[in-house]
Amino acid sequence: MDVEEVVKLVKTEPFTLTEVLYVYNNLRLVNQEGKQKEVSVNHAVVYIGKKRLSSIILRSRFKKLRFKTKVFPLDTFWQDSLLTGLISEQLWLRFKSEFDRDRAFIAGYLCNIGKMAGVIVFPDKMDSLWTQTKDIELQDTWVNLEKKIPLMNHCLLGEIAAAFWG
């Protein structure tokens, strides 16, 4: 599929288009390129790259699903995932690992995908976990609270999800 076909598809999905432009603007600022007078979807898609675009599309698909959680903040989860991906990418730029830049972004972006699997499978427990992590008196980590509930470790859930997705 060439860039023009991808751009046409992105333009048909308002949420995906919004996310593409949002990520593009953030990347441009992180890379200190300054502002451009006009932003074209075509330029944004090319600038973002295939790997980031695929993660944006994955995110937009997840956002369209209706989950049964009541307090677990899905928007915050995805914003944190994007931020973690961008930080991972910046660390890669600084330290240059054996993996490529896109892999660094995706690893950071998906590092907590097990929490999303938990939201799908155990919505009530995930709500409870979220509430407990925000309790100042408890001051405990997500992993420790998973053990107390008990709930399968989100890292293990992430590994299982990654295995299914290939």
Give a description of the structure.
The protein has 166 residues and is mainly α. The chain has 2 domains: 1-64, no CATH class; 69-166, no CATH class. 72% of the residues lie in helices and 0% in strands. The radius of gyration is 18 Å and the shape is globular. The model has no long low-confidence stretch (mean pLDDT 82).
The percentage of residues in β strands lies in: under 5%
The Rg value, from CA coordinates, equals 18 Å
Q: Percent helix among the residues?
A: over 70%
* Alpha plus pi helix count: 10
Unreliable parts: none
- For the record, give the distance between the C-alpha atoms at the N and C termini, rounded to a whole number: 21 Å
Biggest sheet record: none
Order of helices and strands: HHHHHHHHHH
- The secondary structure category is mainly alpha
Q: How many strand segments?
A: 0
> What's the overall geometry?
globular
Please indicate the count of domains.
2
- Output mean pLDDT: 82
